[in-house]
Amino acid sequence: MTMRVLAAMSGGVDSAVAAARAAEAGYDVTGVHLALSKNPQSYRTGARGCCTVEDSRDARRAADVIGIPFYVWDMAEEFDREVVQDFVSEYAAGRTPNPCLRCNEKIKFEAVLERAVALGFDAVCTGHHVRMVDGRLRRSVDLAKDQSYVLAVLTREQLAHAMFPLGDCTKAEVRAEAERRGLTVADKPDSHDICFIADGDTAGFLNRRLGSEPGPIVDESGTVLGTHNGAHAFTVGQRKGLNLGGAVDRRYVLSIEPVNNTVTVGPRAALEIDEIVGERPVWSGCDPLTEPFACTVQLRAHGEVHPCRAWERDGELIVQLDEPATGVAAGQAAVLYDGDVVLGSATIRSAASRARQTSPAS
User: Fold this and answer.
1) Residue of 38, 26, 46, 39 lying closest to 78 (CA atoms)
2) Model confidence over 300-327: pLDDT tens digits?
3) Half-sphere exposure of 27 (CA within 13 A, CB side)
4) Options 103, 125, 169, 295, the catalytic residue
5) pTM (2 decimals)?
6) Distance CA 171, CA 165 (A)
7) Pairing state between β 333-338 and 262-266
8) Active-site residue identified among 50, 125, 169, 195
9) 103 counts as catalytic
């Protein structure tokens, strides 16, 4: 029996070529575009986001060229609940979320996959730049476009129903193939920004949702250095936008305390951490690590990788870095790799310096 594949088509070049490859491979492919906003005009236009008002038309034209059926699924309610509201509540709690990771987890590979399986599809195909080898998620051969970080939250069961046809080629090769196939999205720019923040002003978006509430900016000793209009506008490691003129040394956001609406700043050295605790670990590439295991960890999308030892303890992921890292924010994902293979991931709950924890009080 021919394998039935649901191709998620965002309207971009990657998902179009992925769908075309799946159809060319002989699968029974149906294209679907996810409508994520009840008011599409509130999302980006042009090519700056991944959910623009033009994307549905671009996806439909690509499906016509490929010669596959095409539908639009209204996922606006799910997207608002699982991604937008989560984004706002995480910032309100002093954390820094990754909405693209959340969208992949809750929309593309939970809500969509659940509906696809119920409709008799065997797999969901996307244009993510990752590889599946022997049931394990691996980095794309194009490391500059690798998206394994934002998919590392997926479970083994979800990955068993996933298809990623583009992981073995570069983005330049994808564009060239799209042009050969006559797909009009061949030269469409990549998406980069948060699709549901139309003007790119994250602080303004959060102020409209959470309100403006002035509070203090303090140093590590508690001395008030200035004020802000809402702690939710900051993230750990941030340097710009503090409005603390006259400082001799650069200051960075060290922590955000939403309960008393306080932002603590200090020198870059105070950002250095070497131990991370993650919650809700997901092990897609191996069994849970019960003993410290030498591997690498990536702490933000497109961030560098750090050698470390990692293991699960009492339902939490413990990561001890070989060398300190900076700018590690709660709410982001810690993704473990063995070479280019994803072992698992967890949401960062806290990060600290073991040296500062064990130093005697001054």
Assistant:
1) 38
2) 988 899 999 999 999 999 999 999 999 8
3) 23
4) 103
5) 0.91
6) 12
7) unpaired
8) 195
9) yes
